[in-house]
Amino acid sequence: MRDVAIVSFASSAVPKDAVHNEVEMIVPTVRAAVASSGIPRSEIGFTCSGSLDYLQGGPFAFVMGLDGVGAWPPIRESHVEMDAAWALYEAWVAIQTGEVDSALVYGFGKSSLGDVHEIMTLQTDPYYLAPLWPSMVDMAALQACAYLEASGRGEKDLAAVAARAKGLTVEAVLGQPVTHPPLRDADIFPVTDGTAAVVLAADDLARSVCERPAWIRGIEHRIEAHGLGVRDLTASESTRLAAQAAGVGAGKVDVAELHAQFSHEELILADALGLGEATAINPSGGALASNPIMSAGLIRFGEVAKRIWTGEVDRGVAHATSGPCLQQNMVAVLEGSN
Amino acid sequence: MNAPSEASLLPPHHHVLEYPGGYTRSVGPVVGRFLTGLRDGRIEGVRLADGRVLVPPTEYDPTTSAAVAPQGDHWVTLGPAGRVQAFTWVAQPRRGKHPLDRPFAFALIRPDGADTSMLHAVDCGSPDAIVVGSRVAPRWRAERSGSVNDIEAWVPLGDGEEPDPAPLRVPEQDEQPVTGIVSPVRLEYEINAGEATARYLLGLAQGKIIGGRAPSSDYVYAASRGTDPMTGEPTSIEVEVHDTGVVTTFCVVNIPGLSELAPEIPYASAQILLDGADNTFFGLIRGVPVDEIRMGMRVKARWADELKPDHTSILWWEPTGEPDADYETYKGYL
User: Fold this and answer.
1) Does B223 touch chain A (CB under 8 A)?
2) B187–A126 CB contact, under 8 Å
């Protein structure tokens, strides 16, 4: 295996960007990530993005994103209709093949253009789920209900997560009405428009451009059955298995950035990853504070990497999720030591 | 970028994403059998190799991926009553999408005899009227077509109360098992154009075609989306291009109804290299018999009487009567 590291990261997030289109949003983020990587744009071997055409309401909308990265002379490029964390995974694989030594990974999306909770219904199976139009929040609330019932945890546990992410007191959260039982508004991610970009580099290239690269020591993603009534919603077996394969338990975890879009998801994920008191969970606020869809998973990688570059932490876990109710989960271990 | 932004002068564009009539989906024999059962007023599941009963059934065992046969005695009739495994409350139903137009619960319901649960609506009036473990039973529609919506909703069942049977329906003549469903999809958006496109659209409302270029390049893009796509650099320099140009390539359209701007067929659509621009621009060609349209023909925009910040401001393009452009002058834009 080649040593691959995150050497730069940039992101943007606002509740609603009514001024810029997607391409105009991508440009400053990609340029910042490329500039701080120290690798000239023309020398980056591979470009991979993650986005969701349904956010824009047009087929092949992702192709226009390329107008923001510079694609001439023609570049080696790919795209996933998933969070850009999966684009990072594809880029990591491309680097492992030895074909390229570096990659630009970016994600973008404007959740404010339509009803993102409803748009996410379209990722569900078209025979049994989509005809009933359960929203993303409805489905998450069903998982929250199942989790609280099975775990013995309660609304105060949810509120503690929400309060930390959103800078509120637990009392203030508990004072909110329960809009999607058992969830309150504070337990639900805010609609966010935004972008993210990272540059990956291998081996000596990473060492030459970055004083303390954030090495990806393990990375794995696992998926569970799609049907909500088929799998155990009270735990995340796919996260547990991905964590095992990525080697999470092989050392201390200073920081974990978890792609939890709802309060209960953070609790389920922390259980599955075996995280305890010694780990700072979502010091960035996580996706509960800011959730640019299709970038928020990649941002978890960037937030851990940032803390490694500065020496604030030595070892961290980045997590990303996809699908309804944590159906698919990616776990990576990032380390600062060589 | 300019401030205050032109983009803020342009109201968002209301965009509806809808495939007329909905997507027609083949359901296959396993899902088809389950949906046929619903049409008959019956909930069927399948017993898997490990003995668990799966509902709603899928073509594969969700644990082992083993194929599930569409026929055989592993198919079992369930419930129809069941128990709520998890629920939430929908205070504001989405009209035309959700099963009910009054507040209801979404629940995962495990029909009696099953080991998995199915998502559906529970019509129980209030979030206080449902708990994990509530007994519920389906309220069937009288008109059933082979869809999960053949159950209108589930309703609470009192102690010892028996579920109502599905109302009888008269099968159509020679009725066949369900093989497909129609899935309507409608999503609505408020799209904002972005700075560069807003400059272009606001230009159209003044009878101008506004393009842009990046400081590092001479290339002018008419109707820029904000960057030079070759470099990814912002096209921060605004450039007005001419409303005249050269047809680089074209196609004669013989299909009626494709464009509101071209009610009569045949007409031609073309790529036009505008004078002053370095990319081609899409337009319709009229004012000339289609068999006289040719590559290199010089054309001019025919503007609408009423100019608006959208594509209807240019009705079509028509010949100027100037001599054709030499192929060498536009061959790099094909």
Assistant:
1) no
2) no
Instruction: Determine whether B190 is exposed, middle or buried from the number of CB atoms within 10 Å of its CB (0-12, 13-18, 19+).
Output: middle
B181 → closest Cβ in A17, A127, A233:
A127
Q: Quick check: helix, strand or coil at residue A173?
A: helix
Please identify among residues 240-259 of chain A the ones whose CB lies closer than 8 Å to any CB of chain B.
Answer: none
ipTM for the assembly: 0.94
Cβ proximity of A166 and A159 under 8 Å: no
Structural domain range at position A61: 4-114+191-209
CATH code (residue A312): 3.40.47.10
Digit-coded pLDDT (tens) for B34-55: 999 999 999 999 999 999 999 9
- Indicate yes or no: CB of B183 within 8 angstroms of CB of A131: yes
CA distance B119 to chain A (A): 7
A75 touches chain B (CB under 8 A): no
- Which among A225, A151, A227 is positioned nearest to A182, based on CA atoms? A151
Based on the domain organization, do A40 and A134 belong to the same domain? no
Q: Is A203 found in the same domain as A294?
A: no
Of B98, B132, B192, the CB nearest to A133: B98
Split into its structural domains, chain A has a count of 3
Per-residue pLDDT of chain A (338 residues; tens, 9 = 90+): 999 999 999 999 999 999 999 999 999 999 999 999 999 999 999 999 999 999 999 888 888 899 999 899 999 999 999 999 999 999 999 999 999 999 999 999 999 999 999 999 999 999 999 999 999 999 999 999 999 999 999 999 999 999 999 999 999 999 999 999 999 999 999 999 999 999 999 999 999 999 999 999 999 999 999 999 999 999 999 999 999 999 999 999 999 999 999 999 999 999 999 999 999 999 999 999 999 999 999 999 999 999 999 999 999 999 999 999 999 999 999 999 86
Q: Are residues A134 and A250 in the same domain?
A: no
Q: How far is CA A29 from the centre of its chain?
A: 16
Q: Which residues of B touch A31 (CB under 8 A)?
A: 232
Q: Is the Cβ pair B188, A114 closer than 8 Å?
A: yes
Residue B221: what residue type? Answer: Y
- Is residue B28 over pLDDT 60? yes
0.80 exceeded by pTM: yes
The answer to whether the CB atoms of B116 and A227 lie below 8 A apart is yes
Q: Are A251 and A282 within one domain?
A: yes
